């Protein structure tokens, strides 16, 4: 390639005018026009001008596109390199850039002219089998001078091809128009599309003017036009592509924790056992900090997120996550990269917290769902000084970070759980519903633990340290880095502020405490206020009660002296190991009731009674098996459980046996056995309750005497059966054991 030379007296093009280079001093050039105007320009600025050029000189050479050369087929590259050696030899006498030795006689510039050397090279190429003439050699020399090596490449190998080939442009335009017109329609076949394209061509150009290509060629044409444009595929895919904003895209940038927090909800691909004992789908709501990719809060609930759940996200974000019993010590904040000492110095409540940073949001990004634009959610945000930024309707890319996080949760958490359903029905297993064994509260507990060990401590490809962009870091590491850069450590809210964000109910304080949602809560601190009206006359004397929908073990009551935490009276009812075996047994028993409305207290006592009876040999074989599995599982997890003496169970509530064969059942008072307002709190413990239970469990003479008159009326057969039953009872008593009263066995004996 020949480069232009800039020297004094050269005519240059600069800023659309022709100048003469008058003075060249160092990196400065003095330019003069024919009209007498002058200018002093720095050479880099002169050469960078788009209109710069040398008048009458050769065109500036182009650097070969080496990337495109590497992509060419091997034989094409080798032929171009061969032409380069031939052109060099014609020009300089040496085929290589660095000439060594003496040039060959027919190509020596000192002995032959350029035309003679060109003719000699053409003869040599023809002798080698190349179809080349002297004109071909001159053309290759000119192309090499202007374009370099790229000019010697066979043009047929780099010819640009259209995606639609040689198809008629009118047919291509018609296909594109029909595809765009049916973007919002239901998905059809290619046959329907071909008919509509034909109808459109007839309307615009007349019948028979533009011919449709054959079906196979038409199908290839459709895919060539639609691929990558979102014009073909399912209706959902077309709508998703249409909802994307037009490029170029503006990236979402957050330079400090809490600057931008995205909130969204999605169905969780897991079936859970709900409060009514049946399996159902769940919905997951999360809050994601954009700067650190930290999951600030995660709430699982049955399908149908409410504004209360959205407010719960805010409440979880601004309070530390406490370490739960059974969690590994490695999940604590003290063991993580989070600046634990600095945070504890600011707020002592963070001592013993889990390794999830507390991020106070400045702006939350939400969709147009009624949950996130409701008055209650907006009010909760305003109370915390948080701005709400809604995204355009049906615009998933506007909150793509949280959408991608949902997929990561599905891949890293949901698919490992029993009852996993997959993202659609085509991925759902046949036994998904039967495999479901976790309750809503248990899934929430598992998710909270996974967020810390499976997300916050995992390296994220989108997180790069500002000083080390090649190193991927975890959300906790990024949070620590941003805190060091921004110099801001958020202080979490107090416990009272957290309670204020919880859902509110107005309830009366009765003798038995506070009851709602089939649960009873009581505390000695309520004694001065039982059956008393609150100062709020507009609420009919009821008291303000706040509760956590995902933690039914306690509620908070606002009293004149402040908040009082009131526990659930049945929180400690199940004192024995409560594993999946036991829970599944109770769930299946409840499902056999065919939709009967359940009382929560009866479920709690039934589970406790089942474990007691089975562990003491007072249950059916199935019940003893279930309790044995639970006991074994607990012993494996806790090698030194506290020994508790066996005691006789308290009198069972009506229907507490759930109709299990071989268990003692008190006769029901009505068809349901319990009124909707009944509770275990209303049952007074009888002083002879233990004897009453023993009388029902033992098959001794007292149990047989109750039917003496009826047995006498039955004659010898009844008397014989009664004696047999008594003998069996005496045998059991003599062996030192008690036998459960079995009505089926008695009926068989009679």
UniProtKB/TrEMBL annotation:
Domain Integrase catalytic span(s) in chain numbering: 253-483
Region of interest (Disordered), residue spans: 618-688, 702-738
Annotated Acidic residues bias: 672-688
InterPro entries: Integrase_cat-core (IPR001584), RNaseH-like_sf (IPR012337), RNaseH_sf (IPR036397)
Name used for this protein in its record: Transposase
GO molecular function: nucleic acid binding
Domain of life from the UniProt record: Bacteria
GO biological process, one term: DNA integration
């Amino acid at each position: 390639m020949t480069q232009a030379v800039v020297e004094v007296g050269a005519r240059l093009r600069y800023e659309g005018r022709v100048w003469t280079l008058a003075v060249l001093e160092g990196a400065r050039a003095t330019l003069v026009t024919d009209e007498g105007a002058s200018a002093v320009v720095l050479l880099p600025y002169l050469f960078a001008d788009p209109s710069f050029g040398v008048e009458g000189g050769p065109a500036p050479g182009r650097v070969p596109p080496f990337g495109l050369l590497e992509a060419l087929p091997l034989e094409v590259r080798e032929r171009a390199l061969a032409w380069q050696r031939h052109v060099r030899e014609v020009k300089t006498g040496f085929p290589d850039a660095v000439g060594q030795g003496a040039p060959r006689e027919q190509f020596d510039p000192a002995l032959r002219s350029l035309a003679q050397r060109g003719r000699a090279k053409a003869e040599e190429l023809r002798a080698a089998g190349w179809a080349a003439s002297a004109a071909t050699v001159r053309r290759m020399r000119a192309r090499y001078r202007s374009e370099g090596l790229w000019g010697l490449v066979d043009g047929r190998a780099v010819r640009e091809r259209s995606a639609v080939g040689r198809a008629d442009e009118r047919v291509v335009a018609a296909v594109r128009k029909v595809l765009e017109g049916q973007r919002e329609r239901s998905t059809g076949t290619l046959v329907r599309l071909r008919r509509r394209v034909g109808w459109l061509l007839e309307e615009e150009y007349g019948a028979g003017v533009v011919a449709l290509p054959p079906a196979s060629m038409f199908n290839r044409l459709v895919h060539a036009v639609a691929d990558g444009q979102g014009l073909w595929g399912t209706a959902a895919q077309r709508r998703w592509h249409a909802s994307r904003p037009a490029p170029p895209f503006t990236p979402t940038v957050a330079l400090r924790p809490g600057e931008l927090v995205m909130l969204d909800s999605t169905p969780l691909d897991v079936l859970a056992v709900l409060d009514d004992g049946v399996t159902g789908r769940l919905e997951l709501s999360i809050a994601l900090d954009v700067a650190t990719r930290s999951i600030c809060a995660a709430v699982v609930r049955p399908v149908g997120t409410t504004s209360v759940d959205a407010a719960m996200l805010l409440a979880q974000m601004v309070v530390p996550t406490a370490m739960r019993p059974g969690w590994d010590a490695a999940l604590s904040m003290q063991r993580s990269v989070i600046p634990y000492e600095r945070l504890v110095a600011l707020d002592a409540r963070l001592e013993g917290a889990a390794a999830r940073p507390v991020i106070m949001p400045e702006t939350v990004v939400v969709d147009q769902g009624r949950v996130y634009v409701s008055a209650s959610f907006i009010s909760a945000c305003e109370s915390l000084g948080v701005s709400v930024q809604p995204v355009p309707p049906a615009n998933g890319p506007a909150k793509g970070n949280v959408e991608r996080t949902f997929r990561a949760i599905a891949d890293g958490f949901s698919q490992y759980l029993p009852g996993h359903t997959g993202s659609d029905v085509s991925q759902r297993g046949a036994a998904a519903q039967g495999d479901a064994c976790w309750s809503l509260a248990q899934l929430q507990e598992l998710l909270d633990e996974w967020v810390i060990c499976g997300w916050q401590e995992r390296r994220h490809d989108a997180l790069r340290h500002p000083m080390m962009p090649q190193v991927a870091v975890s959300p906790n590491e990024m949070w620590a880095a941003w805190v060091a850069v921004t110099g801001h450590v958020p202080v979490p809210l107090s416990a009272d502020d957290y309670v204020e964000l919880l859902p509110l109910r107005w309830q009366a304080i009765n003798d038995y405490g506070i009851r709602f949602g089939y649960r009873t809560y009581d505390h000695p601190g309520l004694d001065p206020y039982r059956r008393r009206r609150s100062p709020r006359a507009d609420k009919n004397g009821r008291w303000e009660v706040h509760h956590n929908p995902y933690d039914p073990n306690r509620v908070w009551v606002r009293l004149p002296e402040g908040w009082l935490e009131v526990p659930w009276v049945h929180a400690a009812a199940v004192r024995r190991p409560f594993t999946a075996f036991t829970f599944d047994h109770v769930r299946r028993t409840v499902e056999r009731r065919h939709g009967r409305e359940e009382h929560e207290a009866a479920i709690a006592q039934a589970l406790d009674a089942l474990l007691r009876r089975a562990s003491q040999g007072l249950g059916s074989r199935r019940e003893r098996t279930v309790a044995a599995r639970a006991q074994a599982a607990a012993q494996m997890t806790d090698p030194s459980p506290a020994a508790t003496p066996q005691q006789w169970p308290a009198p069972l509530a009506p229907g507490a046996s759930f109709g299990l064969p071989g268990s003692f059942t008190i006769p029901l008072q009505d068809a349901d056995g319990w009124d909707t307002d009944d509770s275990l709190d209303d049952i007074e413990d009888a002083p002879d309750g233990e004897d009453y239970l023993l009388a029902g469990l033992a098959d001794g003479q007292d149990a047989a005497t109750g039917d003496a008159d009826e047995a006498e009326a039955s004659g010898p057969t009844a008397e014989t059966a009664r004696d047999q039953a008594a003998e069996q009872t005496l045998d059991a008593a003599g062996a030192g054991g008690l036998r459960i009263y079995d009505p089926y066995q008695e009926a068989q004996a009679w």
